[in-house]
Structure to design on (547 residues):
């Protein structure tokens, strides 16, 4: 069966249709194609010609490689001559896919015949653009040359002629805009060729090409698509220039390196599950495998979103991405509890897999670069320290960041001694004694002061993670947008004296927990803050089960 490679299609679509395309592209220098995260994100908007232009790879080499592999190329035909003009048109844009559905051989022949015709026009010798250069003139040839262009092309020629006479570009453009919402690049090419057939020298058309481009700029479908791609490419180019994010992601053990490795593993997992979703053999076990992403999302929610919002006044990710994280996590949970015997179950699973991959793209191309550009080295050290609280997911092991370990080891603690003694109503304790005592208590302790600022977390493993970077910032920034109103309501009721405590029983990681929020007041009943105690009650459950 003939293998047709449509260059107007995205790289992702081509690799999906012909997996061997990835190997050919890799050999040509497009190493990024082996990165599934990049293929499933950037690859969906990038074409081979556009990628060649960005990478500086010759299209001649690309075309040759694919033809050697047995492909027939069609679609968005590339510039094989090595300059900016991809046809005899002078706007620097290729005809659209619909106008150029020919293979490379046909395209090369067309370029050759057009060049001959253009040279003949320049010397004022009428030559057919379809006949060989050495064909004698005859009535049939002249009749073929005299075929009138379409009405639209004739109108375009009229605008070009007006520019040729020196008429003001603004006036011509105004008239053009009133008659054309858009034009095909192939129509522009035909209009220019029509002028040359009528006797306008090639040199004159070339001199006016900038005016032609200014007249039609933004009006061709191709240019409109180019504009959209340019916006994405501008972002990608800016990120490529940002050496900081690349450097941090490549630093073994760095939080961004760890998060990126988790994203790669998640993407691989999703791609392995998709065929099973398609043929409806996926199971709840597959859903639960993907649900590990909840830990990944928790890291972002605890360590990245709040710090961006509070320390750098960048609230976009916390307002949007954090909410999406929660929605994906919750829907995966619902899916795990639902029946998988109905078509809707597989449809929902497929949609969630797509949303999870879209979030991978947003993290790698938006969130991580923002963090890299803003967080200080010392802040990354603390974030690295806090990541130790989280379980490993997708088989990605937590690796040591040597630089951070060395820096954290030099941090000194207050020495014991009389000058560190704290006098209390019930006695006195040194700072070390008090710290050790609070860390020994079999519960998670959090204190938020009267201004709603996180002032203290005890140390040790926690089910509800408390990053050290949260100390000193408001408690609300530590909660997802949909939870924040609940937290505000509880604390406000304490401040107003309406309640003294709020107790909640919940199950997490398969174990029962008792969470108690208590108003802290002084001897005069003035509100000093809120104390949160979280206790694992599995021991009580096991005790009464035996009774």
């Amino acid at each position: 069966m003939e293998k047709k490679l449509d260059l107007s299609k995205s790289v992702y679509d081509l690799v999906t249709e012909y997996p061997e395309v990835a190997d050919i592209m890799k050999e040509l220098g497009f190493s990024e194609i082996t990165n599934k995260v990049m293929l499933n994100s950037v690859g969906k908007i990038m074409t081979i010609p556009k990628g060649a232009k960005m990478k500086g790879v010759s299209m001649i080499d690309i075309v040759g490689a694919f033809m050697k592999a047995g492909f027939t190329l069609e679609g968005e035909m590339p510039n094989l001559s090595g300059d900016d003009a991809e046809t005899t048109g002078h706007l620097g844009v290729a005809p659209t896919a619909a106008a150029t559905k020919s293979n490379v051989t046909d395209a090369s022949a067309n370029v050759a015949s057009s060049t001959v015709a253009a040279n003949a026009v320049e010397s004022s010798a009428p030559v057919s653009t379809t006949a060989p250069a050495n064909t004698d003139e005859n009535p049939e040839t002249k009749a073929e040359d005299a075929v009138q262009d379409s009405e639209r092309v004739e109108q375009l020629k009229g605008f070009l002629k007006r520019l040729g006479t020196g008429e003001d570009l603004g006036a011509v453009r105004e008239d053009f805009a009133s008659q054309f919402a858009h034009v095909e690049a192939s129509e522009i090419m035909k209009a220019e060729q029509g002028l040359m057939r009528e006797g306008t020298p090639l040199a004159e058309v070339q001199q006016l090409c900038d005016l032609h481009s200014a007249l039609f700029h933004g009006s061709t479908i191709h240019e409109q698509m180019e504009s959209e791609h340019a916006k994405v490419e501008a972002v990608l180019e800016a990120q490529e220039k940002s050496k900081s994010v690349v450097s941090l992601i490549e630093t073994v053990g760095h939080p961004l390196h760890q998060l990126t490795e988790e994203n790669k593993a998640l993407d691989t997992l999703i791609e392995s599950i998709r065929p099973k979703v398609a043929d409806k053999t996926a199971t709840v076990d597959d859903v639960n495998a993907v649900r590990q992403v909840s830990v990944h999302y928790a890291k972002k929610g605890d360590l990245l979103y709040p710090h961006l919002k509070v320390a750098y006044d960048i609230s976009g990710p916390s307002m949007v991405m954090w909410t999406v994280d929660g929605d994906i996590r919750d829907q995966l949970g619902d899916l795990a509890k639902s029946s998988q015997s109905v078509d809707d179950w597989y449809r929902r699973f497929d949609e969630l897999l797509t949303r999870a991959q879209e979030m991978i793209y947003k993290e790698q191309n938006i969130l991580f670069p923002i963090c890299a550009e803003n967080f200080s080295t010392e802040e990354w050290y603390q974030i690295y320290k806090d990541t130790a609280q989280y379980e490993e997911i997708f088989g990605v092991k937590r690796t040591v960041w040597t630089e951070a370990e060395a820096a954290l080891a030099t941090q000194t603690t207050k020495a014991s001694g009389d000058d560190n003694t704290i006098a209390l109503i019930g006695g006195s304790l040194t700072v070390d004694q008090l710290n050790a005592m609070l860390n020994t208590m079999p519960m998670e302790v959090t204190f938020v002061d009267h201004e709603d600022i996180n002032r203290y977390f005890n140390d040790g493993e926690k089910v509800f993670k408390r990053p050290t970077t949260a100390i000193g910032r408001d408690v609300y920034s530590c909660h997802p947008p949909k939870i924040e109103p609940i937290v505000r309501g509880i604390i406000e009721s304490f401040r107003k004296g309406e309640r003294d405590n709020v107790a909640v029983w919940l199950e997490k990681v398969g174990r029962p927990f008792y969470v108690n929020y208590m108003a802290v007041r002084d001897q005069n009943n003035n509100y000093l803050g809120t104390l949160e105690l979280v206790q694992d009650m599995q021991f009580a459950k096991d005790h009464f089960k035996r009774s």
About this structure: The chain is about 55% helix and 10% strand. The longest strand covers residues 511-521.
